[in-house]
Backbone:
């Protein structure tokens, strides 16, 4: 029926195709970003800038990415944004000011979270901060 070695070769090809599909390449943020992690669909990091500058960078990035703002909740030391992208996916940003006047950001794209898209948004926010000299 099958030639010897067919099934192991087939398994090898299928596993290589699967592993090749899992590789994603994004540019790394600068030294201004630390403590990056992806947990339960949310991508979080600490940015070496204050809350005000990070807020401006998030809004500039959202504008550049053509995201549509649905809600923004500002409190004393945290801000939450809800956007929609072109495809109707929800993009959620949460921003807190840490004790040492840095900003902790959490990004979630879609219902389950998309690590690659979240990383790209973080890189764009970091670029906005660097462009403004922060």
Residues:
């Amino acid at each position: 029926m099958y030639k010897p070695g067919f099934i192991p070769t087939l398994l090898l090809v299928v596993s290589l195709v699967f592993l090749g599909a899992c590789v994603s390449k994004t540019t790394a943020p600068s030294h201004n970003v630390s403590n990056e992690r992806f947990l339960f669909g949310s991508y979080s990091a600490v940015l070496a800038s204050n809350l005000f500058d990070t807020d401006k960078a998030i809004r500039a990035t959202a504008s550049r990415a053509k995201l549509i703002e649905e809600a923004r909740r500002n409190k004393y030391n945290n801000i939450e944004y809800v956007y929609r992208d072109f495809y109707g996916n929800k993009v959620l940003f949460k921003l807190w000011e840490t004790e040492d006047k840095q900003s902790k950001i959490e990004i979630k794209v879609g219902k389950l979270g998309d690590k690659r898209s979240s990383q790209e948004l973080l890189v764009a926010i970091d670029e906005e901060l660097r462009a403004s000299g922060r």
About this structure: The chain has one domain: 27-131. Residues 20-27 have pLDDT under 50 and may be disordered.
